User: Fold this.
Amino acid sequence: MPQTQNAAVVEPDPGLSLAEIWAPISENKNKLAQEDYGLDPKAVIALHEEQQGVGDKISLYWGESASAPEVEYELTVADLDRQEAGFEVPWPAIKAAGKGDVAVWYTVTPDRADTPARKSTRTFVTVETVARPVETDTDTEAD
Assistant:
């Protein structure tokens, strides 16, 4: 299967932080529940100034067979000041990878041409469903 240059980095760098995926409704870390269906979760990556810099590109991969990144994000001064980067993962990528424990990882491509890209260790995100929830007649509120 063809891979982009970033994904071709063979060995994960244990010095890179693991990606954290935060569910939009259930607010679970690394778990997307039924109520999160169809909504884009947020990926959060802790940054270390000595490892990443302004202009470096983070490419996030979703699913074991991902050959192209689902999200590409360029680091800013504000990201480094917060010591984390946060961005949404599109729901179609989640749906395409299916439910279960899904591998998620990222690469960092430095803005400097003389420095190689690095790859994070995989995080596993539990995806409970990729199907629309069944509608029930629970629209009335209890007092």
Remarks:
- The two ends are 57 Å apart (CA to CA).
- The helical segments are 77-82, 91-97.
